[in-house]
Amino acid sequence: MSNYIIETNKLTKRFGKFQAVKDLELKITHNKIHGFIGPNGAGKTTTIKMLTGAIHPSWGEGVIDSYPIGSKRGRQAIGYAPAESLFYANMTTIDYLVYMGQIKGLSKRKAVDKAFDLIEYFGLDDSTYRKPINFSSGMKKKVMVAQALINDPKVLILDEPTANLDPTARISILEILKTIIKERDLSIFISSHILSELESLVDEVTLIRSGEIVLSGSLDGLKHIFNKGQYIISSSDNTLLQKLLEKYCSDIINDILIHENDALMIKVDSKNKAILEKSIPLILAYHKISLIKFVEKEISLDDIYKEIYTKENRG
Ligand SMILES: Nc1ncnc2c1ncn2[C@@H]1O[C@H](COP(=O)(O)OP(=O)(O)OP(=O)(O)O)[C@@H](O)[C@H]1O
Ligand SMILES: [Mg+2]
Fold this sequence. Notes:
Blueprint: E1 4-15, E2 18-24, E3 27-29, E4 33-37, H1 44-52, E5 59-64, E6 67-68, H2 72-76, E7 78-81, H3 93-103, H4 108-121, H5 137-148, E8 155-159, H6 167-183, E9 187-192, H7 195-199, E10 204-209, E11 212-218, H8 219-226, E12 230-235, H9 238-248, E13 253-258, E14 264-268, H10 273-286, E15 291-296, H11 301-314
Parallel strand pairs: 4-9, 4-10, 7-8, 8-9
Antiparallel strand pairs: 1-2, 1-3, 1-5, 5-6, 10-11, 12-14, 12-15, 13-14
Bound molecules: adenosine-5'-triphosphate and magnesium ion (MG).
């Protein structure tokens, strides 16, 4: 069995002469949360629509849970919450969830059971008999994500589930997703252009721009590659430490800056990281300076994004 719940090969979508998605090679690992990130118009929704079978690829192919995308089994493996919430005016939350369950092939009895479970899970108990069309954006999104889970899908595909939500509603949805992936045999593919919010959620990311993948991989792996040898160091005497570093390590250090709380920020080339990590304790010990903090500064998803897209813009 493949390690990937979703895998595509040269997936391409043309609208007339315009290529919205080009030769996409997506690899989404089983039981992981995969962030699909890109600016407006990058091709996120078009890709998602091809995965869900809503539109046909112009070229290329893909599999979901080893079934071809667009096939009946491929579609059954998916739970999908589109970017726009659409509700029927006269349906209550319970009506809507049962209706969606039945559309997906559940018996009425099973759909009702599942609907009540999801209402409880999403904390929508007080809104069971109210109409989602009148809900706040945050509650509408919850109902959309809940309906996507009604048939116990293998993979949950969410198109910008937190767009236009206030921080409380956003956190509430993200917390539910974090819990749900631990409790079920589920993989999540989630698109967004809000990077910082996904950072605490995703295991893997794919960044796209103008329909093409710019970067894809595990978040830890990406951070490791992009970490630039920036260290934060704080000691009992930062002024002395700075002088000593300038004296003894000037050949490996590119820059020393003053960071928050008088700590020092040191920049070295990646090839010199190991030397710096060995030298610092020796210098401190020899000069009887005690160490408070010595860490490599973690790069954020936002930093990676900025780095990639500014490089691209520079050509
Ligand atoms: N049916 C269509 N006909 C023609 N062009 C389309 C169609 N659907 C999408 N496009 C174009 O394809 C490109 C990608 O659109 P898409 O909606 O996939 O982007 P997105 O990454 O989801 O953007 P957003 O963040 O704004 O939702 C855009 O330039 C869009 O205008
Ligand atoms: Mg979109």
